[in-house]
Specification:
40% of the residues lie in helices and 18% in strands. By secondary structure, the chain is an alpha/beta fold. Helix 4 links the parallel strand 3 and strand 4 (97-102). Keywords: Hydrolase, Metal-binding, tRNA processing, Zinc.
Length: 161
């Protein structure tokens, strides 16, 4: 197992924490000089905030650890391709490298729908590595949404009273 896969496994562990809370299982970690300095997982439902994405939470924590908004010399590992908001936060925090597992065909801004992370017009661009443990990351999401749909089907229809 290479270094990217080892760190992605740690991001998957974060995603499982989200899943335990009933959150969409997305996890992220930030690595600086081969050391994990920040972790995050989805907390949108738990905290009822649009900003509760794994990447944003990890970025906030990393900024505190480094005591700077500039996260140069770091790598962000995330189980799902960043959305536009998270891609913006990545660019703004100057993270030079992003590694993600599963593609997001509905909101991905690391190459699927758009590639904000490498947009030439921005003053900062990232190196992007895709598909690291992609199958495992995708399976987490597929299983989560399948279980959610089954749960919704089993709920009694309250409109029939």
């Amino acid at each position: 197992m290479n270094k990217d896969e080892i760190f992605m496994k740690m991001a998957i562990e974060e995603a499982l924490k989200a899943e335990e809370l009933g959150e969409v299982p997305i996890g992220a970690i930030i690595v600086y000089k081969d050391e994990v300095i920040a972790r995050g997982y989805n907390l949108r439902e738990t905290k009822q905030t649009a900003l509760g994405h794994a990447e944003v939470i990890a970025i906030e924590e990393a900024c505190k650890v480094i005591d700077s908004w500039r996260l140069e010399e770091t790598t962000l590992y995330v189980t799902l391709e960043p959305c536009p908001m998270c891609a913006g936060a990545i660019i703004q925090s100057r993270i030079p490298r992003v590694v993600y597992g599963a593609k997001d065909p509905k909101a991905g801004c690391g190459g699927s729908i758009y590639n904000l992370l490498q947009e030439e017009q921005f003053n900062h661009r990232c190196d992007v590595e895709t598909g690291v443990l992609e199958e495992e990351c995708s399976r987490l999401l597929t299983n989560f949404f399948r279980a959610l749909r089954l749960k919704k089907k089993k709920l009694p229809n309250e409109d029939k009273h």
